[in-house]
Design brief:
- The protein is about 10% helix and about 40% strand.
- It is mainly beta.
- A hairpin with a 5-residue loop joins strand 21 and strand 22.
- It is built from 1 helix and 27 strands.
- The radius of gyration is 28 Å and the shape is globular.
Length: about 350
């Protein structure tokens, strides 16, 4: 009995010590866990505030370019002479058939400025409208034109800039009746041709082994060798004036600020999985998108430092050729066999 009275306080004391130690250990573990969350927060893309919706189209053509004349009225072009029009901001599209004879054309570019619009295609084709697409006129092109039209940019009333697939650049100020050459010599066969909003160009050679740049006022293209063993797929300019490059095998690079030849460290996003990357666009300064083969869409929310694949599109079953944002709230992905995806922000 005496021994029991002595033992009980000892047991209670040990129990309090054990419980205290457990409490201290729990608090330490909780503190470490919270610190880990602060240091390594969950990726911001874990809670997307958007979705991509597939738009049903009355065509199986491969889609190659898109532009809007106003927030509701837009045009979409592609292979097999595909020309489609929307009047509801891209929710629905209707085909527009033009009287172009028996030829089948590959419409590669479309551009509007107000009611005035242009379409270019292959074999050499140039179309022009001044009434929002109610009527399209075919503009004759010289048989001596170096290459086929590849890119068109509406500049204003009666004016446009056109580039061919070998890098010849021209401007018209009279509805396409006369064209002035802006560069003395073409650059050669190109895989891709990019024009920035301020009129600078980047051309990727057909084999992807070099690229060339041209700025308004330059007499000729300037050639640059690629800095990687991977061939170049596509290139363009970032909003802050840097250059982006997509290489074969799912690689990505950005130049250092103020340079066309000095590159940051090459990125090989795991989300690309070695699949070919085809196009890149900045939605805003932080949100960047890359399209690729096999229904691959990559998204960065930190200006291109880290990337995550949008898993919601993995079963679409199409290559995504081009991505377009009319503004940060309105975007589209153009793909093969009539695939069109519309960006829908939540709320």
């Amino acid at each position: 009995m005496f021994a029991g009275k002595i033992l009980m306080p000892i047991l209670k004391s040990n129990l309090r010590v054990a419980n205290g130690r457990r409490l201290v250990l729990f608090l330490v573990m909780l503190t470490v866990a919270i610190a880990s969350l602060v240091i390594n927060p969950a990726p911001s893309w874990a809670n997307h505030a958007y979705q991509w919706e597939k738009v049903q189209l009355p065509t199986q053509a491969n889609l190659l370019d898109l532009d809007f004349s106003d927030p509701q009225h837009g045009w979409l072009v592609g292979t097999d002479s595909a020309l489609l029009e929307t009047s509801d901001g891209g929710e629905t599209w209707e085909p527009r058939n033009l009287e172009l004879g028996e030829g089948v054309y590959r419409f590669v570019g479309v551009s509007f400025r107000g009611e005035e619009g242009w379409v270019v295609g292959k074999p050499a084709l140039l179309l022009h409208t001044e009434d929002g697409g109610k009527k399209w006129d075919r503009i004759g092109l010289s048989s001596k034109l170096p290459g086929d039209p590849f890119l068109i940019q509406a500049l204003g009333e009666h004016s446009a800039e056109m580039a061919t697939d070998i890098g010849a650049i021209y401007r018209t100020d009279d509805d396409g009746r006369n064209w002035k050459a802006l560069v003395q010599e073409a650059v050669g066969n190109t895989r891709n041709l990019y024009r920035s909003p301020d009129g600078r160009y980047i051309a990727v050679s057909t084999k992807g082994n070099f690229y060339s740049t041209w700025s308004p006022g330059d007499a000729a293209w300037k050639q640059h060798n690629r800095n990687s063993s991977r061939r170049v797929q596509n290139m363009g300019y970032t909003p802050d004036g840097r250059v982006w490059m997509l290489n074969r095998g799912g690689q990505l690079q950005f130049t250092k600020p103020g340079s066309l030849d000095e590159w940051e460290k090459t990125q090989s996003p795991r989300a690309a999985a070695g699949i070919g990357l085809l196009d890149l666009i900045f939605q805003d300064q932080q949100n960047v998108w890359i399209t690729g083969g096999s229904s691959r869409l990559l998204h960065s929310e930190d200006g291109g430092l880290t990337w995550e694949r949008d898993q919601s599109l993995k079963d679409v079953g199409a290559n995504f050729y081009q991505i377009y944002f009319q503004n940060p709230q309105k975007g589209f992905i153009l793909g093969q066999t009539g695939t069109l995806l519309k960006y829908v922000p939540e709320g």
